[in-house]
Amino acid sequence: MLEALDEGRLRIGEGTLLEPGCWLTLAPEARIEIGADCFLNRNTMIAALERVEIGDHTMLANGCFVGDSAHRFDDPETPVTQQGFTTKGPVRIGANCWLGANVVVTSGVTIGERCVIGANSVVTRDIPPGTVAAGNPARALERK
User: Fold this and answer.
1) Which of 21, 61, 67, 69 has CB 3.0 to 4.6 Å from 101, enough for a Cys bridge?
2) Which of 23, 71, 72, 75 is catalytic?
């Protein structure tokens, strides 16, 4: 992680707090950008194969997982641990969002500004700005 900071591949904005147990992992060419005044609560994980962006003033509750890739498992002759990864693209979470406890955000997803994602939700598609969403898969419950 320190190497990624030195290389500019990891950027953490001023006033951002990472609680104990947060885990940031980056592939060699990946980038993670976390805005200013964000709050990543205990046991949150951010995993980037290519790119993960989190806007200013965004909160992730305990146990959230945000990743822009998934393990491949399509070759029955090769162990899953040796198949590498697949991605649908970067993950972008807008400013002023709140992700409840244990939310999962999958690759290729954009969550707009001022969204609230309910606890234990799995976000598999884009969420428009100003939306309250929840479920597995997460769906819009309310627009502000």
Assistant:
1) 61
2) 71
- Please say if 57 is a catalytic residue: no
Residue 16's closest CA among 62, 59, 48? 59
The predicted structure's pLDDT at residue 6: 73
CA distance 119 to 121: 6
Taking only the tens place, the pLDDT of each residue in 79-111 is 999 999 999 999 999 999 999 999 999 999 999
SS3 label, residue 6: helix
131: buried, middle or exposed (CB in 10 Å: 19+, 13-18, 0-12)?
buried
C-beta neighbour count of 58 within 10 angstroms: 25
Tokens, residue 97 = 């969002």
3-state secondary structure (DSSP) of residue 3: helix
| Residues 61, 45: Cα–Cα separation, whole Å | 11
Q: Smallest Cα–Cα separation from 87: which of 50, 46, 124?
A: 50
